[in-house]
C-alpha cells in the first residue's frame, strides 16, 4: 500500500472505531492515526517515512528486512503498551493507525509476517489486492468516501473542531 492509502484507510477505520466506542474523534487522535499508519514502513528506505528517517530505515531494513518485525503483531502490541503507559488521544491514535497499517498490508498480495520473530512466514488474506495497482486506487476512494460518510453522518467533524 502507498502511504496515502495507508493514511486514508486507517483514518477511516479509526473513524469507524469512534462510531462504536466512546472514543472521540479529536485532532490529536487523527494525527496519531496518520502517524501510526506510516511508522511500520520505517523498514523501507524508499517509503514516505523511510525517506524522512535520516538513515534509520536503511538500518532497520538491513537488520530485519522490509515487512519484517515492524509488520508483526508484536510490534502492534508494543504500541498498545506505549498507549497504556502514556494514555492520550494521540498515543491511542498511533496504536490504532499502526494496527490498521498491518491490516492493510495483510490484504496485499505480499502479506505480512504476523508472528515474526517467532514464525517468519508472511500471512495474507484469502482475498488480496496488488500494491500500487488499480485495486489499490479503488480501495483508496472507498476509504475516502467511507471517511467522509462517517464525518458527516456521525457529525465527527464537530469533535474534530472541539
Ligand atoms: Zn507496510
UniProtKB/TrEMBL annotation:
UniProt keyword terms in alphabetical order: Membrane, Transmembrane, Transmembrane helix
Pfam families hit by this protein: YdjM
Membrane-traversing stretches: 68-84, 90-107, 127-152
Protein name, entry field: Inner membrane protein
Originating organism: Priestia iocasae
Amino acid at each position: 500500500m502507498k502511504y496515502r492509502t495507508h493514511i486514508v484507510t486507517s483514518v477511516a477505520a479509526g473513524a469507524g472505531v469512534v462510531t462504536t466506542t466512546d472514543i472521540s474523534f479529536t485532532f490529536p487522535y487523527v494525527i496519531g492515526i496518520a502517524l501510526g499508519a506510516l511508522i511500520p514502513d520505517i523498514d523501507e528506505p524508499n517509503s514516505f517515512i523511510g525517506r524522512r528517517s535520516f538513515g534509520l530505515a536503511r538500518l532497520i531494513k538491513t537488520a530485519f528486512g522490509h515487512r519484517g518485525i515492524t509488520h508483526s503483531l508484536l510490534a502492534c502490541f508494543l504500541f498498545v503498551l506505549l498507549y497504556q503507559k502514556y494514555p492520550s488521544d494521540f498515543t491511542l491514535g498511533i496504536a490504532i493507525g499502526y494496527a490498521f497499517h498491518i491490516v492493510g498490508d495483510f490484504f496485499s498480495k505480499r502479506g505480512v509476517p504476523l508472528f515474526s520473530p517467532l514464525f517468519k512466514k508472511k500471512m495474507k488474506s484469502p482475498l488480496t489486492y496488488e500494491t500500487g495497482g488499480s485495486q489499490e486506487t479503488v480501495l483508496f476512494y472507498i476509504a475516502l468516501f467511507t471517511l467522509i460518510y462517517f464525518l458527516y453522518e456521525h457529525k465527527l467533524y464537530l469533535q474534530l473542531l472541539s
